[in-house]
């Protein structure tokens, strides 16, 4: 009898173990849990459940500003002082103000159903108004209290359940609880639809029609269709201008006084674009100095040159520039003036030259560029911007978001000069070839080569070294010289001239009045070397500072390198037997 009871007990224990193992490892979890947090409006972006809570205001879906910035538009801009929101796309600038039903799209008024609203210090954006600009579909599912957002440019796989046991679970295992049962409803004639987002070995990640995101076993569904929802391609007509032949040859023309005698300007062989320094920011309100001249534009066009007028800040007042950049109305004021002047003077483009920007104003500078570019391009203008070389200097280099600027404007000019600047503590080249190439390669890490113009200096610095009272060498830079002035100075002092391979320049040195003078010459030879980098790295072209500093033979060099040669190998072949000898 004891043996029988022991045997029964053993069987029961074994059975219990097997049942426990089955329940733990094999029996599906039949519990049903809520897919969303109760008592709140839930947000689902494609297949992601977002913690941030949207609002329904007067029947319209509104998203918190921070949500839009994180998930849809990192460049959406909030001006807290003016209570204005600015959205920039490739070809649109949208401005909205809190508590106002008037929005502006490229300066044209548009009426909103609801305004930008602030509730409990949170800025809410009427996202349905912006759905076409962002390329999204916004849907409010009242029954489940869920807002879904989908991108139009996306592949959509749609599946249908084919088994009565089909369920959507919280994870990729039958041990996860059920979020929704999809078994056939005898009272319904509609078949549930699921959108598939990800595929795994035995599971799909899906979203139900009521916005629930979870996982379903493949065996329970069949993929019915795959559709590609795309935005219509818009031909904005804003393709960046290119010269008929070769790379772009641009020169800046410094014009801060009276207009020069245009009849005395010689031929500039191969030149495509001239950029006069005409417009300058004068105050934090965005008012501009205007030095433009219609006769100059007429003269340039007759010569076949495009005119890309330069617009600069005040280089020595970073604080004022920062106040301007951080004020939406001020930026808008400057943009409106530039649009008006560009139309009045029949300009072909605007070249933006903002320098000495405080690092904290970096994003505001990017915002300004994103705002001005679509409006200028809508008017048929080419938009370009000058940036400093990547050298780690806050106000000269780090203030430029190179990647964002490269994505926005038509062309970028990298100012690969002033390696040794006017107040440099050490004498040296303005732009030695090895330094220029290294900075160019760094710049190409963030700017597309087809948009990049290499900066070329036409000027030369004369350095003076003398022993100070403390016995140390004191370095000063008395003058920045044109190429012809530098040659005349060398001849006047009968200075010996040698070729310096490291700088790719002729170098001269002489003694006078107890001081040593040093000069690294810019010349046709040095410009030949530097401009060859346009071919070597397949750049858009070259931009030179400044017109009038060059010797006449420079234009022949630039025309050949930018317009006649088709590759760097051709340049190497053409220069294989060059010997660098200075001709007095």
UniProtKB/TrEMBL annotation:
SUPFAM superfamilies associated with the record: (Trans)glycosidases, Copper amine oxidase, domain N
BP-aspect Gene Ontology terms: carbohydrate metabolic process
InterPro entries cross-referenced by the UniProt entry: Chitinase_II/V-like_cat (IPR011583), Chitinase_insertion_sf (IPR029070), Cu_amine_oxidase-like_N (IPR012854), GH (IPR017853), Glyco_hydro18_cat (IPR001223), Mao_N_sf (IPR036582)
GO terms of molecular function: chitin binding; hydrolase activity
UniProt keyword annotations, A-Z: Hydrolase, Membrane, Transmembrane, Transmembrane helix
Protein name (Swiss-Prot/TrEMBL): Glycoside hydrolase
The GH18 domain, residue ranges: 243-565
Pfam assignment, any one: Glyco_hydro_18
Residue intervals passing through the bilayer: 7-26
UniProt keyword annotation of Hydrolase present: yes
Entry keyword NAD: no
């Amino acid at each position: 009898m004891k043996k029988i009871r022991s045997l029964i007990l053993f069987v029961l224990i074994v059975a219990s173990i097997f049942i426990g193992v089955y329940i733990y490892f094999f029996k599906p979890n039949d519990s049903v849990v809520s897919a969303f947090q109760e008592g709140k409006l839930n947000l689902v972006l494609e297949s992601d459940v977002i913690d941030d809570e949207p609002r329904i205001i007067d029947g319209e879906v509104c998203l918190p500003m921070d949500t839009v910035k994180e998930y849809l538009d990192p460049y959406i801009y909030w001006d807290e002082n003016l209570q204005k929101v600015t959205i920039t796309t490739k070809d649109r600038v949208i401005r909205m103000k809190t508590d106002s039903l008037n929005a502006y799209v490229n300066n044209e008024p548009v009426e909103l159903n609801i305004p930008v609203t602030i509730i409990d210090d949170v800025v809410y954006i009427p996202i349905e108004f912006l759905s076409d600009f962002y390329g999204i579909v916004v849907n409010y599912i009242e029954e489940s209290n869920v807002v879904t957002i989908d991108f139009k440019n996306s592949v959509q796989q749609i599946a249908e359940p084919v088994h009565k046991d089909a369920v959507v679970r919280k994870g990729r295992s039958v041990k996860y609880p059920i979020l929704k049962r999809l078994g056939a409803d005898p009272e319904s004639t509609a078949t549930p639809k699921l959108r598939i987002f990800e595929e795994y070995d035995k599971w799909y990640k899906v979203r139900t029609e009521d916005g629930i995101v979870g996982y379903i076993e493949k065996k329970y569904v069949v993929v019915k269709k795959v559709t590609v929802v795309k935005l219509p391609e818009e031909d904005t007509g804003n393709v960046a201008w290119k010269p008929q032949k070769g790379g772009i040859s641009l020169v800046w023309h410094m014009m801060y006084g009276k207009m020069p005698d245009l009849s005395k300007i010689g031929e500039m062989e191969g030149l495509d674009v001239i950029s006069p320094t005409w417009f300058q920011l004068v105050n934090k309100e965005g008012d501009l100095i205007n030095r433009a001249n219609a006769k100059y534009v007429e003269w340039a066009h007759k010569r076949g040159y495009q005119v890309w007028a330069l617009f600069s800040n005040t280089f020595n007042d970073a604080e004022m520039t920062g106040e301007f950049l951080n004020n939406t109305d001020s930026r808008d004021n400057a943009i409106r003036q530039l649009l008006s002047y560009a139309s009045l003077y029949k300009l072909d483009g605007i070249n933006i030259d903002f320098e000495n920007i405080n690092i904290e104003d970096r994003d505001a500078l990017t915002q300004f560029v994103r705002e001005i570019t679509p409006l200028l391009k809508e008017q048929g203008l080419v938009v370009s911007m000058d940036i400093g070389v990547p050298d780690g200097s806050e106000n000269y280099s780090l203030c430029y978001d190179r990647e964002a600027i490269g994505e926005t404007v038509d062309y970028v000019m990298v100012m690969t000069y002033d390696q040794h600047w006017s107040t440099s503590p050490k004498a040296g080249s303005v732009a030695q070839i090895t330094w220029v190439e290294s900075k160019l390669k760094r710049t190409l890490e963030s700017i597309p080569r087809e948009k990049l113009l290499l900066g070329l200096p036409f000027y030369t610095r004369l350095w003076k070294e003398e022993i100070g009272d403390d016995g140390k060498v004191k370095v000063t830079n008395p003058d920045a010289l044109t190429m012809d002035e530098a040659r005349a100075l060398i001849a006047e002092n009968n200075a010996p001239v040698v070729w310096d391979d490291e700088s790719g320049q002729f170098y001269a040195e002489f003694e006078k009045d107890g001081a040593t003078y040093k000069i690294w010459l810019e010349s046709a030879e040095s410009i030949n070397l530097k401009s060859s980098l346009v071919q070597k790295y397949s750049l858009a072209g070259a931009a030179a500072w400044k017109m009038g500093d060059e010797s006449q033979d420079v234009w022949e060099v630039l025309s050949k390198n930018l317009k006649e040669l088709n590759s760097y190998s051709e340049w190497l072949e053409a220069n294989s037997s060059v010997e660098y000898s200075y001709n007095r």
